[in-house]
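Lab notebook, bench 4. The sequencing result for the construct came back, and we need a structural model before the next group meeting so we can plan mutations. Quick request posted to the team channel:

Model the 3D structure of this chain.
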Amino acid sequence: MSYNVFEQFEITRLIPINFFGLELSITNSTIFMLLTLGFIYALYVMNLRDGFIKPTRWQSVLEILFEVINEITKDNIGKKGGKYLPFIFTIFLFILVLNLFGVVPYTFSPTAHIAVTFGLSLSIFLGVTLLGIVNYGSNYFSMFMPAGSPLALAPFLIIIELASHTAKAISLGVRLAANITAGHILFSIFSGFVWTMLIGGGILTVASALPFVILLFVTVLELAVAFIQVYVFSLLTAIYISESEDLH
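Done. Here's the predicted structure in token form:
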């Protein structure tokens, strides 16, 4: 029976729930997001709540990641970044664990689905827009009309700036989902190719050594993509918050 590389992205309803026409079913995506939240909470309880005189390996890893996000908030938001640090760090850990789930065989990565990543990016987009309105009121919308621009060009500039601003909600989620999906497909194709050669017998089994080495590099690449994409997501989130805090 042939294996379809897209089967790993299939959403499966585990517990169908329909509440007055509203789809609230528990799916495999739901389960892995709940597992991610539980895993992050367990890390906090076991390693960060009380701390240790000699940090555990997990605590050391979390502290390194925390410092990375702390630098992102300081560099992009400045002195006001401290109050947004817990939010950005939580987003970072949540997406990172979801990405890493996809590297483990027979698991499911919700971040490979645009519905999940776009939901995250849209929520952040709405949040930073409301933040800008709260901070600057109606003056927030002046960002759509660059200072010193000719009045005759106002309609065109507003449309362009509005489209550019709205694109943030789309690009943030699409970038994450596209890269994670592409990585999973590449990994599945290579692993299927290596397995086919390995069970082929004879010269094919011997020749599978080279593709197997390549598969190891692809695995390392997958891990790198998981970290890089969540770093970019967190960085852009900090930049968008900065724009709402310091109106340009």
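The helical segments are 28-48, 57-77, 85-101, 114-136, 154-198, 203-207, 209-245.
Will bring this to the meeting.
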